[in-house]
Every structure is written in structure tokens, then in C-alpha cells.
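A reminder before we start the practical. When you read a complex entry, don't treat the lines as separate problems. The point of joint prediction is that each chain is placed relative to the others, so the output describes one connected object in space. Small molecules and nucleic acid strands, if listed, are placed in the same frame. In the example below there are two entries. Take a minute to note the order of the lines before looking further.
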Amino acid sequence: MSVAETFYDVIRRQGITRRSFTKFCSLTAASMGLGATGAANVANALETKPRVPVIWMHGLECTCCSESFIRSAHPLVKDVVLSMISLDYDDTIMAAAGHQADAILKETREKYKGQYILAVEGNPPLNEDGMFCIDGGRPFVEKLKEMAADASAIIAWGACASWGCVQAAKPNPTQATPIDKVITNKPIIKVPGCPPIAEVMTGVVTFITTFGRLPELDRQGRPLMFYSQRIHDKCYRRPHFDAGQFVEQWDDQNAREGKCLYKMGCKGPTTYNACSTVRWNNGVSFPIQSGHGCIGCSEDGFWDKGPFYERLSNINHFGVESNADKIGLAAAAVVGVGVAAHAAATALGRVTVKHDDKAPPKA
Amino acid sequence: MNVITQVNDISDSHGEKTVARRTVYVYQAPVRIWHWINALAMMTLFVTGYLIGTPPDSVTGEASAHFQMGYIRFAHFSAGQIMAVGFLLRIYWAFVGNAHSAQIFYIPFWRGDFWKGVLHEIRWYAFLEKYPKQYVGHNPLAHTMMFLVFTLGTLFMIVTGFALYSEGAGRSSWQYKAFGWVFSIFPNSQDVHTYHHLGMWALVCFTILHIYAAVREDIMSRQSMISSMISGERQFRDEDI
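Here is the predicted structure of the whole assembly.
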């Protein structure tokens, strides 16, 4: 591997003149209010700072995160992969294979110790010593721990790496485990979704390479800028929710008129993501706009919060399929019937007792 | 001429002797006011909470002409805030009020006669005891239920309620700062919705039992129950105690 390209090298390679480059630096420094020496500092940083090396590993996953990533429109994924970062390893899309590919991992670890970013798509299964996911002849979990040890930060792509997703759904036979439960000593940024929105993925990468640090995260480790609001709060169908106008059946008039999908099990009210603002495929649409409720794919354990088409989640702890209302109504009915029976028994008991005998006999 | 005899300054129109009965002042005014406000808030919360989970049939016409879910949720949030403020004031009163006012906030776990009392009450409700015991405050079984189901249940509903409210109020709201930790325990707020929903049903069951026990013991236990929460006084109906 050659010496890492700097941003300046990339900019020149793309045909931008030295003159334009210095102009850009001056303007950037001026707009940021950096003072007289600012422009020189910006130029120096762009000329000397190597692009951030990124290692992209794949555990138990379906590659939907990669599929989403390569469809990013703003910025175009080619700009991210070829200009902004130095994507040194991604076994799905790289040219190298086999021992050649494995050699890159070793080389990156040695050369950029503590400097590269480890992006993980999918998660490691821990059962049977990790034998359910073999990568290059070894359990994936071993490779993951090895690469994480020398990484500066870890990006957990998608619901798999962030929460576990479908392979961690009950009963989770392989004990698929999210990244933050396996690697506990590195900063981890979760970018959940099944898959995450392309622009959210490239947006996170852009932020990290631009500012050299992770964006502000929420309580669960997700970037606040994309995951601080619910689908529900930015949904264009929200007025129908507040008005009380719902799709009651998939084929009714309200469905055709685009009313709120709350009663059809839409998980928008409990899902934090940017779908209702950024949308998908270069802003074309998102599930609710296409007439289907949100399934909450960026939330923890969303496979186990079903059904997708009912508002109340199933509760399966009692052996039978149930939900909060069914359990609650049954409990209230039992209590009500119990109370009525008890009252009847009490009344019957009193028929045979004279009023004066209610008190214990005087001593 | 009919002379009305006065006995202990109480008498009836026939001049017959009536008895003076012992009354104890148990529920001070703030506790009584809180009790009824809280009861109203709970009823509102039950109905609106159920409707939030299972909304009524859709209204027709333009969305701009209606605010049905908006009003249901507004009523729920308002009643919830009243309940929460009431609960805080009730905790305050447990410190400054009389001895009975703190009863629902603790269980005298290490007191043997308390558990004997619980056993007696269980036997009383199982028709195994002939005569009820009388207590100035809650009987030990009621005391246990109050603490475990009502006090802890209400606390759970307030905490999860504010956590859920913070979802709409936003990540910078005080509700999120104060109650956002709930989502560290349950990262998916759909779970919090489910548990909040189950909590409602637990309190519905509590309410049924509470009302039944109050009516039953008013009749059966030779002491006042229902009027005590209006006047504050518990009257013991036995003659000469």
C-alpha cells in the first residue's frame, strides 16, 4: 500500500487547480472567522492530513447496508469512497480476495494503529465459540476483536451491528450479539436501520472525516442529527393522526386518501430515524408515503415487537399470543367476577347472622 | 309535656337514649382533597389512555376541521400532570401531616404483628374469621396493597408517562433530561408503551378492589370507610369501646 493520499492529492487529481484550492481555503477560513493565519492552516491541514483509513467488515448480515450505502446521492458514494475516506478493506466490493485481502487487514493494523475507523456491518454470533460465522477460516468474532483493538472508533452499521436485528430475534439460536456488547473499550457510533438511509450513512462518514471526531450521540449511541426525532413527529400524515382519521382496513377509502396508518400498526410513534425528512432513493419516497406503516426497523429488537400490522405489541410470556389489552381485560374481568362472587358470598353469610352478632361477644 | 332527655348531648326526637361513638380524625383535608382529585385524574387517564391505544372510529371530512386524537391526548397529558403534581404534594404531606398520612409510602416489613395482621385479614376475606378487626388507618392487607400496587404503581406510571411524553416534547426537554433514563433500560420505546399499558390495567384492577373493599368494610367491619374519606373522621360503631 502506498503512502495515504491527502485531500489535496485527491482534489488535484480531480482537476482542481492550485489557484482554486487556495481560494477555497481563504474563503473557508473567512467564512469560519478564523483570522489572518486561518487560510494557511486550512491549506496545511488539507495538504498534509491523510484521508481517514476505513476498514469495513461483514459479520452476520444481509449486505442491505452496503446496498443502501452505494445508492447515496448527497454526497455521491463515489466521492465518499474515492475522495473522502480511504476505504482500504471491504471484502464485498474490493478487488483483492483471499490472502491478499487478509494481508490488508494486518497491514492497516500495523501502519495506522489507533487511527483507522472500523465500520462493521452485521454482528458476531457468540454461541459455539462463534462458529456460526466464519470469515477467512476463523470465527468472525475473533477477527472483529482483533481489528477493534487498534481502531480509533467503530461505526456499527445497521440494525444488526447496533441491536442484533433478525438473527438476534427470539430465540436467537446463534446468540448473535450487537457490537457494543462485544467491544466495550472503544467509542462506538450506532447507525441503525434495516438498512440505514444511504444519506445518513454517508452523512456520518462525512462528519467524521470533516471534523475528525464522532458526531454528538444520544443515550443509545446514535448520532443525534439523524436519530433525535421520531418518524411520527415529522410525518406528513401527522395531521390525520391528530384529527383522528385512520386507515381502518388496507382496502378502505381512508387508505386511498392517505390517512394515518397508526391503527394498521405503524411504528412511527416509537421509531427514531430520518425517513420522514430525508426519505429514500434520493428523496423519492419512504414507507409511509408508499402506503405502508413504519415497522420500526431502526429500533432495538424490532422483530420481537410485532405484529407489524397492529398497534399493540404482542406479549408472549404467558404461552399464548396476547397483548396488553387482552391481558388487562382478562385480569380486570377476573377481578370483577371475583369481587362479585365475594360480595355474593358475603351477603349470603350475613343472611344467617343477626345484626347484633356482628360484633364479637362482650367479655 | 314531652321532656326531651339529653344524653351526652345527643338525643333523638323520641327522647330515647342514643350512644356516643368514638371517632378518630384520620384523613386530614389535604389527603381527602388529593384522594378525590387523584380518583378523577385516574378515571380520565384510564379512559383516554385506552383510547390512545385503541382510537375511536375515524372521523370524516377535512383533517383541519378535527382534533379528536389531539383532544384525547391533551386530556390524558393534563390529567397525568395533575396526578404527578398531586403525588408530589402527597409525598410532601406524608412528612408534615399526621402519622396516618405516611402509611401508604412504606411497609413495616420487620414488624411481626403487622404480618400477623395481614394473615388475619386474608383469613377474614376467605370467610375463615368470624369477626373483623378494626384499624384506625388502613388494615395491614390494605396497607400492603396500597403500597405495592397503588403507590409503586402510580410512581411507575408517572415515570414511564413522563418518559413517553418526552418523546413528543423532544430531546432537549426537561422531561427527557429527567426521565430519559427509562430508555436506557428499555431502548425501544414500544416496550415502554406496552408496560405503561399493562400498568394501567394493574391500576384498573386495583380500583375495582379498592372500591369493593371500601364498600364491604363500611358494611361489615363496624367502622366507617366511605364517609371517612369525605369527613376525614373514622367512626367506630361499637357501643362502649
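Discuss with your neighbour: Confidence is low (pLDDT under 50) at residues 1-9 of chain B. What might explain this?
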